[in-house]
Amino acid sequence: MRTVYRRIRDLREDHDLNQTEVAKMLGMSQTGYSKYETGENDLPTEVLIRLAAFYETSIDYLLGQTDEPKRYPNPDGKK
Fold first, then answer.
1. Which contacts qualify for 56-59: CB closer than 8 Å, 24 or more apart?
2. Which candidate, 59, 60, 64, 76, has a CA 20 to 30 Å from the CA of 45?
3. CA distances from 48 to 14, 43 (A)
4. 4-59 pLDDT per residue, tens
5. Per the domain annotation, does 75 fall within a domain?
């Protein structure tokens, strides 16, 4: 499970964002978001889905089930 914490931090840094900016997008405090990156709090499914959509990646990538960051195509053609 450690992979998810490292990946959300790396994705945030790769997008030149700080924790406050990502927390704002999620509608939460920076402190609350920071606890996800450090693994102090588990990521709720809803937050995981929102982060995957925000970074245009798959949940499998965030969870370390694949090393392919590319998002899967949506069967109905929508994003």
1. 57/11
2. 76
3. 18, 6
4. 999 999 999 999 999 999 999 999 999 999 999 999 999 999 999 999 999 999 99
5. no
| φ/ψ of residue 26, rounded to 5 | -85, -10
pTM for the whole thing? 0.86
Q: Tell me which residue of 14, 28, 21, 23 sits closest to 56, measured CA to CA.
A: 14
Instruction: For residue 47, give its domain range.
Output: 2-63
CB burial of 43-78 (b: ≥16 within 10 Å; e: otherwise) equals: beeebbebbbeebebbbebbeeeeeebebeeeeeee
* pLDDT surpasses 80 at 3: yes
Asked if the structure places residue 73 within a domain, the reply is no
